[in-house]
Design brief:
The protein is built from 14 helices and two strands. With about 325 residues, it is mostly helical. It has two domains: about 5-55, no CATH class; about 75-305, MetI-like fold (Orthogonal Bundle), CATH 1.10.3720.10. It has a two-stranded antiparallel ribbon. The longest helix has about 50 residues, at about 5-55.
Length: about 325
């Protein structure tokens, strides 16, 4: 016969068995069976490469010879590289230009399209069309537009206005703004669709009340539309900042980082370390810079959400 002290232990054991039996009988095993392939694929193709990159960041390796542990030497070599500061500055410059031009344009387009009385579907399709175009095709198309000769597409337009011609991608001062122009065109469509979907959540009676009060379009946007889009705006802003920090395709295909390293970015520098630094590549330095970039984006995102936690939810 059990003593009174053993009763709670037996009760907890019975509850744990009942909980496990309940979980199994309520499709717990079937749920785990459906999740297991996804977890395995995610672990093999996501978490394992991340862990492998962290290990490589403290090794001297070219994926051919036996790796050698070097500690933090790879991080020190990256920080001492003159191209590192240039790549960070160029990436920050691109993020600044993309924030100035690429962030407000989708908002303006979404608001204008939401006010349209006809052909809203056509406008949405046209806005999203650049997103459907593969990035490589988009860059090749815009390289044709950016032809520096007077007969180039953009220079022909400028010539008709009595301006130009401009060395779009051949000049260190105009290369990065030209890349920002193409990147804004290529990526604005997806953000426009997000804003259009968010605008559907704004109660129409608020606009009716604003019309009764005699509010202008700008006043309706400022006092009705933007407050209801605040959470979406903060989310798209951080997503855009993360995307700009990972810029690679456009400078790689447009200029290769030139002219005079004016368009080399952090990801392009990682590529140079891995595939163009030496015979077989210096994958240790490439992994170290990758870890540094991931750590920076993680800390930056955490600080961003901590600072905006009240702004994004308040009305």
């Amino acid at each position: 016969m059990s003593s009174w002290a053993e009763t709670p232990v037996l009760a907890r054991t019975a509850r744990s068995r009942r909980t496990l039996r309940t979980w199994v009988t309520r499709d717990g095993l079937s749920t785990l069976a459906f999740l297991l392939p996804l977890l395995v694929i995610f672990g093999v193709f996501s978490w394992f490469p991340i862990g492998r990159a962290i290990v490589m960041s403290v090794q001297e390796t070219n994926l051919v010879s036996v790796p050698t542990f070097v500690g933090l030497d790879n991080f020190g070599a990256v920080l001492a590289d003159p191209l590192f500061g240039r790549a960070v500055a160029n990436t920050a410059y691109f993020a600044f230009l993309a924030l100035i031009f690429g962030f407000p344009i989708p908002i303006v387009l979404a608001v204008v399209m939401s006010e349209a009385r006809r052909f809203k579907g056509l406008y949405s399709a046209l806005a999203y069309l650049p997103v459907v175009v593969p990035p490589v095709v988009s860059v090749l198309l815009w390289r044709f537009f950016f032809d520096a000769r007077p007969a180039g597409v953009f220079n022909s337009i400028l010539g008709a206005l009595g301006l130009g011609p401009l060395p779009w991608l051949q000049n260190a001062g105009s290369a990065m703004p030209s890349i920002v122009l193409e990147a804004t065109w290529a990526g604005a469509g997806a953000t426009v669709i997000i804003y259009l979907a968010a605008l559907l959540s704004v109660p129409p009676e608020l606009y009716d009340a604003a019309d009764v009060d005699g509010a202008s379009i700008w006043q309706k946007i400022r006092h009705v539309t933007l407050p209801h889009l605040r959470g979406v705006l903060f989310l798209t802003l951080i997503l855009q900042l993360i995307a700009t920090a990972q810029l690679f395709t456009e400078p790689f295909l447009f200029t290769g980082g030139g002219p005079a390293n004016s368009t080399i970015t952090v990801l392009l520098l990682i590529y140079h370390y891995a595939f163009q630094n030496s015979l077989g590549g210096d994958y240790g330095m490439a992994a170290a810079l990758s870890v540094m970039l991931a750590a920076f984006l993680g800390v930056f995102t955490a600080i961003y959400f901590w600072l905006t936690r009240s702004w994004s939810t308040s009305s």
